[in-house]
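Progress report, Aim 2. The chain analyzed during this reporting quarter is listed below.
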Amino acid sequence: MNMKGLGVLGFVLCIGCSGTTSPATDTGGTEPDSAAETMSDTTVDTGAPDTTEEDIHLPTEPYTITAFDNIRINSTGEVNVRDVVAEVDLAGASFEQVTMRVELDSTCYPFESWTQPPPGHNWPADCDAFDRNFEFTLDDPQEEGDPPAFELVRAITPFGGPMSFEVDLTDLANAHPGQHRIRAHISTWSDGAGQVSGSAGGWNVTTHIDVVPGTPPRNVLAAIPLVNDFHGKQDPFTTSLTLPEGTTSTRLEYRVTGHGGGDPDPYPTCIGPAEEFCQRTHIVYADGVDIDQFLAWRSDCENLCTLETHPNGGFEYCVENPCGSVQSVKAPRANWCPGDITPPFVWTPEQWTTAGPHTFSYSIPEQGNGSWRVSATAYAYGD
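Predicted structure tokens for the chain:
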């Protein structure tokens, strides 16, 4: 990279990713979009021979599914735009352990690997310098009336940097073995002028699922997707579920992150003019009973900013979020941090310990003009 490019990069890192209200505002890239989906090649090495209806041989040895192999998720064009989908087969009668491993790579970093930005642009065309929603779902609905998708993990990409993580899928796999569609989504957007991000930015995703057949660690009777959507000011949300015979305990997982613009008035708990900077009370109900009230808020984002000084550019940046302004990276947010996963809130509702019909509800009564990305899953267990 020449000195002029480094000078521009230093300037952009100070002001370009600062979360203004321009089209490239730091909102986590979370506005709903209709994305083109493209099936990726899937490699499954189970060690088992080809099967037929007459001769089914389920694997007994550990195997790995390669769902996505360094596949590009694009912000423009007609292929893999914000989404990529693959077929996967969780082959086996039961599972001792199932783990999903994810590697995310960025063409923004390291800085020394930059391609030359187009004339008049501050960023390489293929670089998405912002923090974006990064989500994995299983079995997205195909027709009206289908149940919502299972959300496997909620993460936010770093500001233009790589990340990696693992997710335990053991209980879900034991509840739903067999064929599935897995989708990786990144709400990547481009800046056609190349001033605050690349004009055709994107990300590279690699995903492996490690499967160990064997005795399940828990007696999982069911996994039930309850909701997977954006929540506006419609409030509250309620849905029904039916627990199977033999249910003696349950686990409720609730994933939620706040995004989008909005006036924080009259809410004094907002630290900025966007929903991602507002502390909102969430209320969760099981069978109409309030089981918890809490603030969905992360105040530990500063841990994702190890400061370094670029040896040529002379500017400071966060190693974990190399293209973000230091102040923006460290700021508390509505239950998410750039470059990290968002773990679910988890409860074991005493109301859900018997088979039969039940209800799940949540409410965000203080929500402003932005939106909250919400998903929930119920797991039923037997003795």
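The chain has three helices and 20 strands. The domain at 1-215 is CATH 2.60.120.230 (Jelly Rolls). These observations will guide the mutagenesis work planned for the next reporting period.
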